[in-house]
Amino acid sequence: MPAEEFGERYWAQRPLLTRAEETGNSFTDLLDLPAVDELLSRRGLRTPFLRIAKDGAVVDAKRFTTSGGAGAEIADQVSSDSVLRLFADGSTVVLQGLHRLWPPLIEFADQLAADLGHPTQVNAYVTPPSSRGFSPHYDVHDVFVLQVAGEKHWTIHEPVLPAPLRTQVWTDRAAEVAAAAEREPVIDAVLRPGDALYLPRGYLHSARALGEISAHLTVGIHSVTRWAAAESALDLVRTLAAEDPQLRGSLPLGLDLSRPDSVRDDVAAVVAGLQEWLGRVDPTEVADRLRARTWAQVRPEPVAPLAQATAAASLTQDTVLRLRARLRCSLRDGADGQVLLIGGRRTHAFGASERAALVELLAVGELKVGDLPGLEPDERLSLARRLVTESIATVPDAQVPSPPP
Asked: Residue 284 pLDDT more than 80?
């Protein structure tokens, strides 16, 4: 369905099950079972990139990790033979943080985060035949479940706490969750390769593999919430109010905190002072803090350090610069006429003469060094070199030169 329709009817509201006939995809371009074996056996995984669970409980990591041998003695590396024994005994394998490990999912998760405007993560759950991984529970982030292999029976129930925050984990409501899981489900279905399931945060879910190995991807969406904006506002108030000498004052000598009424007037004065400071907060500053918190969680396009360093050292006026994909950028005015480029987690200061060139690059996304406006040729090369070495822009298709034959 169109993204707008999904946003209006389902996003953060209710689940949606979509069958393979509608998705037109098996999702094996993102991950398949041979890829899981490669990750477990040849990629040098360490905890916490792997969890294992059986019958609803997490297995102690010491049961499937060990030293990697000579030159790799770190003791928390995944032992493939231990994983084999546990998996054959009915344990579920959970590969975590695949958006940082597996190339197809790196690109997929980063682009999805750019499309949604919310940070993403990807885990894979691989369950042996006729086994259950985790007990009924809820997540504190939205998820898309993508079935990639085998069949898995999913049971979905209404939330016990709608739209939980990240601090409101299901284990704090374990009894309520267990009771709710006994009620009539809102979805009771078998997912097959190519099926997709969307669950807003808070919906209870559990799954059991059927007659063969089952694998699915869970794409977690860390929703930017109104509470996150409230936290940003409170952070700003705390910073501003710390300058108030009245709020920094000491409570009376000999106070007795066992008698709350003895400090009631002081507390009332503090609350009133904070309310006054909250009234002075600029919503734009709050939004800027929210932006910084969110952008810090979203990775821009990875860069190839060797290839880009080589390209930066050999720039010409005809070299094409491309704004780094998925790098969230904005320009601000700085002190002494400087221009501040806020990109992801970092802020870069440039001279006033470079403003026009930066504005043009951010507007068009790609242009030749010689087309950077408002600068002399040597200045263009200098700016371009800095943009590449500071990972703001990249040189497309840059490669490390091959040695001569």
From this structure: yes
